């Protein structure tokens, strides 16, 4: 039996969605040993997706973000420890915290998450320059928005665009600067990107593509007052939001001698090179079951799915991680939902004539890899079932007259016709 | 605050007061009621906040919107005519006295 099975205690480092779920699932699956959940944040474990939406806009308070109330952790005997882990001793199977305390572990789960990438230009440390990752970040950003007149957002990813939307709602003038030629380039098709560009323009946000930022300039009081672009232009700004992505928090793993690339390297069962240490969620680079490529995903679904898998393994039911990725975002009452993952799509088929409600099917060769649905929840649900159930869809299928994902699903389930 | 009763699979009842403007899902989470996962945080994306509404209190609710209706096909336990996603049930004064039964599992 592998050494990691049925440990007498589990320490989870990081109390984001993945860390919380690991502890919760261990108890759900009947784990009786000691469970310690170490949180570096000054809050009960909470959901991050609303941070850039309802919480930034002030329509949800912090208690509405909590994954569970304080009583839950007491009732489930989950020892929620506030502190920063400063080191792992893999030989002694101990983690050390900044306050000098130490915890022995039978198994260690690294759910350390990710941190915002820093914009490496002069002036990045000026007052008025914000990032958006934690509830405290958003408290500061919301307070700044109350008096800001001109915000520049650097980076047109989900965080940047959602921040821009909230700032528009607060009456602030907003310019988004993106180095690539379109928004959401890493996560959305060109058609989806064009759609979101139109949406934000319609709401009065100014978008600049293909523009690098070379410096942030400040006033005599140390506050930011302009953003300088590669072409020499200066955009006036009293508030700057940096949304140029996140990087995995791998330092603890690397210092413990574990292999690390873009994320902590884990195998299909989410174990690191040390059989007593797993890694999950935003910080973990795992082999994607559908392609074999090593990748890292930043999503609630991935964090929760991987947490559950580790909890299953630690309670005696090991398996390989093959959950279908899915993701959603909402901006200005437009919902985009993505099922699957297209690493190198070579064919696209669009379903739906409505420019505000359609799905893009992304193929690699003859194989459907992902479906991106805008305001088409029926397609999204069917896509999750098709991709998750291994039901084939070819480009020829998808371009046949009358094709729908739901119809295709029905015709492949025990001969049912609808 | 409206009072909502959550009935566990074993028949245990928890009657709690749920703040107006939240949801039946959030009411369970805030009051530490087990049996609702709510992985997506209340966006009708994951079907892990599935409840069976007690037949005697069904008339307190408006029918499901299309998004909820689609997602109800994705529940871990079988969908029944009284199945709802509790994240889509907004708490208003009308919901006082609502009784929901929790399914055996959500994942």
Question: If you had to describe this structure to a student in words, what would you say it looks like?
Answer:
The complex is a heterodimer of chains A (418) and B (107). Chain A has helices at residues 17-28, 54-57, 70-75, 135-145, 158-169, 190-202, 251-255, 300-314, 377-388, 395-399, 405-411; strands at 9-13, 34-39, 78-82, 85-89, 94-97, 102-104, 107-110, 114-116, 129-130, 150-154, 173-178, 206-209, 213-218, 224-229, 234-236, 239-242, 246-248, 260-261, 263-265, 277-279, 284-287, 294-295, 326-331, 334-340, 347-351, 358-364, 367-374. Chain A is an alpha/beta fold and 418 residues long. Chain A folds into 3 domains: 9-115 and 247-314, FAD/NAD(P)-binding domain (3-Layer(bba) Sandwich); 129-244, FAD/NAD(P)-binding domain, CATH 3.50.50; 333-411, Enolase-like, domain 1. In chain A, the strands form 7 sheets. In chain A, strands 3-2-1-7-20 form a 5-stranded parallel β-sheet. In chain A, a hairpin with a 1-residue loop joins strand 18 (260-261) and strand 19 (263-265). In chain A, helix 1 (17-28) packs parallel to helix 8 and helix 9 (377-388) runs parallel beside helix 11 (405-411). Chain A is globular and about 55 Å long. In chain B, 46% of the residues are buried. The longest helix of chain B has 7 residues, at 24-30. Chain B contains 2 helices and 5 strands, in the order ββαβαββ. In chain B, 12% of the residues lie in helices and 20% in strands. Chain B is globular and about 30 Å long. Chain B is of the alpha+beta class and 107 residues long. Chain B: InterPro entries: 2Fe-2S_ferredoxin-like_sf, 2Fe-2S_ferredoxin-type, Adrenodoxin-like, Beta-grasp_dom_sf.
């Amino acid at each position: 039996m592998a050494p990691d099975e049925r440990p007498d205690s589990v320490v989870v480092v990081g109390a984001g969605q993945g860390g919380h779920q690991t502890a919760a699932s261990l108890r759900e699956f009947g784990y009786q040993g000691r469970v310690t959940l170490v949180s570096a944040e000054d809050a009960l474990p909470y959901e991050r997706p609303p941070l850039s939406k309802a919480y930034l806009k002030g329509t949800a308070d912090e208690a509405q973000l909590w994954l569970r109330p304080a009583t839950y952790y007491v009732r489930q005997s989950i020892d929620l420890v506030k502190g920063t882990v400063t080191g792992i001793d893999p030989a002694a199977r101990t983690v050390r915290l900044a306050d000098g305390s130490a915890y022995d572990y039978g198994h260690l789960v690294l759910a350390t998450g990710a941190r915002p990438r820093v914009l490496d230009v002069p002036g990045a440390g000026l007052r008025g320059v914000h990032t958006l990752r934690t509830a405290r970040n958003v408290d500061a950003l919301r307070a700044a928005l109350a008096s800001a007149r001109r915000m520049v957002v650097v980076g047109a990813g989900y965080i940047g665009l959602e921040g821009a939307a909230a700032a528009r709602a607060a009456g602030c003038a907003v310019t988004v600067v993106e180095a690539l030629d379109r928004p959401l380039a890493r996560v959305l098709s060109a058609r989806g990107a064009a759609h979101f560009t139109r949406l934000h323009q319609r709401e009065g946000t100014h978008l600049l593509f293909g523009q690098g930022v070379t410096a942030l300039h400040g006033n005599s009081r140390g506050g930011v007052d302009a953003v300088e672009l590669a072409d020499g232009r200066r955009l006036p700004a009293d508030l700057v939001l940096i949304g140029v992505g996140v990087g995995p928090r791998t330092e603890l793993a690397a210092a413990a001698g574990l292999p690390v690339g873009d994320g902590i390297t884990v195998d299909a069962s989410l174990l690191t090179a040390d059989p007593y240490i797993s890694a999950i969620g935003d910080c973990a680079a795992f082999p994607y079951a559908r392609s074999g490529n090593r990748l890292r995903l930043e999503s609630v679904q991935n964090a929760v799915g991987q947490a559950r898998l580790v909890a299953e393994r630690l309670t005696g039911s090991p398996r390989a991680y093959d959950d279908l990725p899915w993701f959603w975002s909402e901006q200005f009452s437009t919902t985009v939902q993505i099922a699957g993952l297209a690493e190198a799509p070579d064919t696209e088929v669009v379903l739906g004539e409505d420019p505000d409600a359609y799905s893009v099917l992304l193929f690699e060769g003859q194989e459907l890899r992902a479906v991106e649905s805008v305001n088409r929840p029926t397609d999204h649900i069917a896509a999750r079932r098709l991709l998750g159930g291994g039901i084939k869809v070819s480009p020829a299928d998808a371009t046949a007259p009358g094709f729908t994902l739901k119809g295709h699903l029905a015709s492949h389930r025990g001969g049912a016709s609808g | 605050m409206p009072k909502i009763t959550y009935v566990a699979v074993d028949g245990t009842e928890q009657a709690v007061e749920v703040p107006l403007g939240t949801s039946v899902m959030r009411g369970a989470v805030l009051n530490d009621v087990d049996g609702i996962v709510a992985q997506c945080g209340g966006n009708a994306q994951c079907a892990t906040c599935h409840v069976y509404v007690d037949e005697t209190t069904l008339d307190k609710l408006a029918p499901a919107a299309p998004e909820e209706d689609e997602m109800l096909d994705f529940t871990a336990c079988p969908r029944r005519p009284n199945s709802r996603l509790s994240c889509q049930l907004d708490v208003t004064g009308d919901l006082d006295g609502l009784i929901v039964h929790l399914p055996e599992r959500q994942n």
